């Protein structure tokens, strides 16, 4: 008697000396990371932004796609894409990171999507703000969570499901939250949620539900799989844990010099070398980025590019915040204003490279006091892990 | 004393029970495959096409980019992008596959980019034919190989290099070979070789040099790293081997039903199930695709979509062939004709699914007599390996 459960196995931790399995590799081949040299781009070019797709990319027809708003609302709504496009239009530059970024570097390793350090990307998302739509539908006074349902369908640890995530009403009503139908100025690509996805600036990627079909308001906390089982910080399998929410601060080094094909070790010539990269936090504005060239023994301050004049990444803001920001470099002077408060910031460090072997890394700190650890912050799902990156560099004797 | 060689290690085979290493995973995170559900698209959407980048994606300025043609030619040439765009413009739909596709499934496993079965994609490449340009430069009578140099720079097994590949003059003069500056109707993306790349229909991906800066005609066989060392079929480390050239036939199944997140095992309901996918060969027109549901014990014929009326994948063709093909579905009736002879073809098989566990696969055969093996065709680099794919399926008892 074969059942849906036969396709799944329970979650597990890898054995101490167990290499990456073929199943983990299968996920790595599908769900790609940002090639680190792409940290050079303010906005990640199409196709280089990280991807995490739980099941299959659905085959949806934008012309027939409908979004339903129901549950604890006074006036349930159904909108097609044309109706959503007629609503107020906003573009935000937002950095997204997968909650499992860094998982494959943990010991013991939770067996799941085996990210190293680069499951991140920054895009300009265009869409219409969610909050006014919820207000039009009329939230009931007892509303607690808002559930977003995607069209991707699969099994996970034996549970058949459409991908669904609940968000507390207070977060769903933030003016920054978008129903996005464009990415980098073009219609959404299939793999990024076409024709419609949620964007929740500051939160890890699991909240940004792709292929969005339904928004349901509940009078209780959502107890679906992705909230109650999957995305939780647990110390053990029987710990109920706490929810994964916003993005911990992280800085990534754009690796200097040129790489070895297999090891990705970098070769740098001796002399002055600008080490640069990006940093972000979903909690609060960044206050510092520091750089190490000795794997975290010693640190030196990096220069952080100014925040945009009108706001900070991680700043909560009230109604009207959608109109602040600065114009996109690509836009005409009279083009739309792009809100960049939720995007990564560039940093630089002038390194005097002398021959030898080095391990480069960077550490971001934000105004909430959060920073990045040198020792791994372990949890059973491998979530919200912002261990400092390690970039192996050989500085040659020869110039 | 540190040197460039310190960034590299010699090539090796994995130990019999060695899982995928962190270094292999690092390559898998960068160089992604085609998610198999994307076999549904005739032309692979941007960002889903497989990628194999030896070093870093270079940061090139299309406005300043120059292509030099030199070596054994009567009139060396230097052209910018504007000059290339003024030349005759051709669009070809071409399936590209990485020569190392399937490598991570081999035993013993060559340690390199750890592809499973899906390092493939089909794009519409637009550019100008190479052959007329070579004729204008005036090939010397003693010309043997044409070397294509890319701007990507790195180290590989201790050898510092710009990526370079040589192609026999007879291949370089095929009318199908393009200098491409657009992909799927838009300027090339950075990761696909912007602003200019070579496209050699029928050959594995290593021949399609990206970030093309120079074309050099030699009076001898090119003995650079990527021809003489890397891309060769060898039985052992000291076997000089033979060059990797054209794409062996392969069929891939677009996995039916829906997946389990971790195992990617498919769940299918009992009843009629259309199993479909794509097949291709770089040698000769396809003659058959067969399907197995029992891991290769028994086979049944699939229905192969007709070849385009004007040609076949793998057909060599003379001057003027660039004008044949059929109009792209996206094109206006008076739009450009797209040559599809080098693109994959769709196939279908009507399966009556009854409850149980299955291993699906498909096998392509071409007019040259080449087909796909059930037992692995092993070589030390893991190249040109077209072992039949295995898709695990659970057909549930419940409808």
From TrEMBL, chains A, B:
<dbReference type="Pfam" id="PF03404">
    <property type="entry name" value="Mo-co_dimer"/>
</dbReference>
<feature type="domain" description="Moybdenum cofactor oxidoreductase dimerisation">
    <location>
        <begin position="271"/>
        <end position="394"/>
    </location>
</feature>
<dbReference type="InterPro" id="IPR008335">
    <property type="entry name" value="Mopterin_OxRdtase_euk"/>
</dbReference>
<keyword id="KW-0479">Metal-binding</keyword>
<dbReference type="InterPro" id="IPR036374">
    <property type="entry name" value="OxRdtase_Mopterin-bd_sf"/>
</dbReference>
<keyword id="KW-0560">Oxidoreductase</keyword>
<dbReference type="InterPro" id="IPR000572">
    <property type="entry name" value="OxRdtase_Mopterin-bd_dom"/>
</dbReference>
<feature type="domain" description="Oxidoreductase molybdopterin-binding">
    <location>
        <begin position="54"/>
        <end position="225"/>
    </location>
</feature>
<keyword id="KW-0500">Molybdenum</keyword>
<dbReference type="Pfam" id="PF00174">
    <property type="entry name" value="Oxidored_molyb"/>
</dbReference>
<dbReference type="InterPro" id="IPR005066">
    <property type="entry name" value="MoCF_OxRdtse_dimer"/>
</dbReference>
<dbReference type="InterPro" id="IPR014756">
    <property type="entry name" value="Ig_E-set"/>
</dbReference>
<feature type="region of interest" description="Disordered">
    <location>
        <begin position="304"/>
        <end position="336"/>
    </location>
</feature>
<protein>
    <submittedName>
        <fullName>Sulfite oxidase</fullName>
    </submittedName>
</protein>
């Amino acid at each position: 008697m074969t059942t849906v459960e036969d396709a799944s196995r329970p979650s597990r931790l890898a054995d101490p000396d167990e290499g990456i399995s073929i199943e983990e590799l299968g996920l790595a081949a599908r769900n790609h990371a940002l090639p680190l040299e792409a940290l050079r781009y303010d906005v990640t070019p199409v196709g280089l932004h990280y991807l995490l797709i739980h099941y299959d990319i659905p085959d949806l027809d934008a012309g027939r796609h409908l979004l339903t708003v129901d549950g604890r609302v006074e006036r349930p709504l159904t909108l097609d894409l044309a109706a959503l496009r007629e609503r107020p239009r906003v573009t935000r530059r937002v950095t997204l990171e997968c909650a499992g970024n860094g998982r494959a570097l943990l010991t013991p390793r939770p067996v799941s999507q085996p990210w190293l350090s680069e499951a991140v990307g920054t895009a300009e998302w265009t869409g219409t703000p969610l909050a006014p739509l919820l207000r039009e539908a009329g939230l009931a006074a007892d509303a607690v969570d808002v559930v977003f349902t995607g069209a991707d369908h699969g099994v996970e640890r034996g549970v058949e499901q459409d991908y669904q995530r609940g968000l507390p009403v207070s977060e769903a009503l933030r003016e920054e939250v978008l129903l996005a139908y464009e990415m980098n100025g073009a219609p959404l690509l299939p793999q990024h949620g076409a024709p419609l996805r949620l964007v929740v600036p500051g939160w890890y990627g699991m909240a940004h539900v792709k292929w969005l079909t339904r928004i349901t308001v509940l009078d209780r906390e959502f107890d679906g799989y992705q909230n109650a089982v999957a995305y939780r910080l647990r110390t053990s399998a029987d710990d109920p844990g706490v929810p994964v929410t916003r993005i911990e601060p992280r800085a990534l080094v754009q690796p200097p010099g040129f790489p070895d094909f297999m090891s990705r070790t970098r070769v740098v010539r001796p002399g002055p070398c600008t080490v640069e990269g990006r940093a972000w936090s979903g909690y609060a504005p960044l206050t510092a980025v520091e750089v190490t060239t000795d794997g975290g023994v010693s640190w030196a301050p990096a220069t952080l590019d100014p925040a945009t004049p009108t706001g900070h990444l991680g700043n909560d803001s009230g109604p009207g915040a959608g109109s602040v920001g600065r114009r996109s470099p690509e836009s005409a002077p009279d083009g739309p204003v792009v809100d960049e408060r939720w995007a990564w910031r560039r940093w630089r460090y002038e390194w005097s490279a002398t021959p030898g072997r080095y391990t480069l890394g960077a550490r971001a700190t934000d105004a909430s006091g959060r920073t990045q650890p040198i020792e791994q912050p372990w949890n059973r799902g491998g979530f919200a892990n912002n261990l400092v990156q390690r970039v192996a560099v050989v500085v040659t004797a020869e110039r």
